[in-house]
Amino acid sequence: MESYGRIVDNEKYINILKVLRDNGGPYNWIRETKNFAKNTSEFHTTDIGRNKAIKEVLSSYSVKNTIREVALKNNQDVENVTQDANDILYNMAQNFNLTVVRIVGYTLMKIFDVVLDGVYINNKEMEILKELIKENPIVFMPTHKSYLDFLLLSIVCYDQNITLPCIAAGMDFQNSAFIGETLRLCGAFFLKRSFGNDKLYWSIFSEYVKVQIRYPDRPMEYFVEGTRSRTQKSLFPKYGLLQMVIEPFLKNNVYDIQIVPVSINYDRVMEEILYGYELLGFPKPKESTSSLFEARSILKERYGNVYITFGNPISTRNFFGTRLDRLNISSSPNQCTNFNNDVRKQIRELAHVIIKKHNENSISTIFPIISFSILQIWNENISNEKLSIKYNDLLKRVIMYWELFKKLKINTYHQHATINLEVRYQISLHKNLFSNIEIDGYDSFEITLSEFNIDKEVQRKNLIPHNSVVHIVLQNYANQLAHHFVDMGIIGTIFCIDNSTDNDNVCILGYEEVYQKYVRYKELLRYEFVYVPGEEKNDFQKALKRLEMIRICSINKNIIINDITQLKLITKIIESFIHGFINVTKIIKQISGQCLTDKELLTICQLHIGKEVISKTYMYTQNVSADFIKNVINSLKHQHIIVKKDNIKNEMFINSNGINELIKFFKSSKYFKKYVLEEIIYESNTFIVSKI
What pTM, to 2 d.p., does this model score? Predict the structure, then answer.
């Protein structure tokens, strides 16, 4: 049976910060002579530069045609619209400057040398990339869990003598003129978060991206998830930019494109507390991009290690193979980018495969197990707001799950000789999440969760539960492990494993019945746990094999559960997501008949969950997270249970038949008997709606 997740070993990974420290520090590092690997293929024109790239975009048939259409529609002169296009491009385009890169690189390495213990990379993959880059356009697609992601990737490329990538960056970086222009000189080009109906902008940006692929001066880099994952899980991918990247290949403008999935994992995320507040609904600071780097407090903290894993490159030529008729696509007019449904489906599949590779190449430390264990113990003592957790109790729980991980061949990386030492180290590294702990020199001690300040009036008005920030932060770390367990956890959810109903009869179900329910749960959780559409059967069979491997189940025509206790442990890892989904569904059922916008629906759900947590009728404080609720709402939209009303306000209404059918489906699992779906409290909606 294959193992899951990467581990750091000396044969495959090097610590580039250790190499830097052993060789005289950042100053010597930045002064080294560089010989960057770059594209030397005779099939590609390189060294196009900023001005030539802009000229190439403006002279393209598609952009010229769009300029004429916009001028005609808005009754403007073509010259004026052309000037607008030129202004857009100059604000968008990168302007790489190696001198600035050296200055920024030196500064960043000075900071990383202070706040990080190590930056680990699988450097042998870099040697493969150096050869690939000579022949084909390269596109890095990293995970996106921190603002540091693209900075670290550029640092690694510089360190390993790979031409620095041109990076698709959000325009919020331009809130600070200094940061924005510095990033531009380091190779960033900027895009709006949303193009809306701006046809001119869309045409210009699309063509600019395609120019970067057709004339591969340097690799390109962008985040397939579109934005940072504030929950430390993979986000549902965005397809638009990927289509732009792939189009030159589909139209035979390039022979191949090599897509490199890059998994970036952090011992401790710099923005962890900021994410906690944002997920409660507090607005993101306008200049959080610059303030993150300028904050002096960061230099006083330690953030452990960063692990950067370059996955095997995905060749678009091999991936699409003969599945697409490229000859037919390339014969269509240049301005035509409206691919048919089959082409779009294949591009979407590629996006999901990239996310899958991100997860397969992830490196997990033991802190996600610690975080999950703390939340479990807290939920078991929900009535005690001032709960102190004995270290030895926590350690036993962590060891129990760590041993389960080993049985399932799920790799966790730890630096110390014993689990006890590793747990102590990780708690010390994340000491800001805990109150007044004294670790060194004590066999045992007690752990109390930190309280992060929230304005009392805001907390009262918005029904924000006590300790909600730290609960969300801990859940975010626990999320790093969830993708390993989701398929097994869904199978566990389908079986009756509630203590009050344990018996032999409920532990046997027909194979096909379990599979059909599995597919339904998987589809419901599609935004929470991203998977490759069409691979459900394979994922299901893999999960069963893993459960068979550790003798939790056996299979003939039926699926028989042999070890309820072990299956419970696995199912607990995704339990909060399933319960949370049901709870949000219940809340939405209560407001059937009302027409609400997305924002109003999110607010109502967040208020209701907060009220339940405060009144101790619901234990999962972390489910007040806006990201979690949005995922449920998006899933219900996908199921056509929440339906957009055809009006200007973008209001939604609830499909009563659809939501009743979904609740009936949940009731079919006896696992939720204790969750008493029938007992929906029809309190006055006036209470909740008045809070919006």
Answer: 0.93
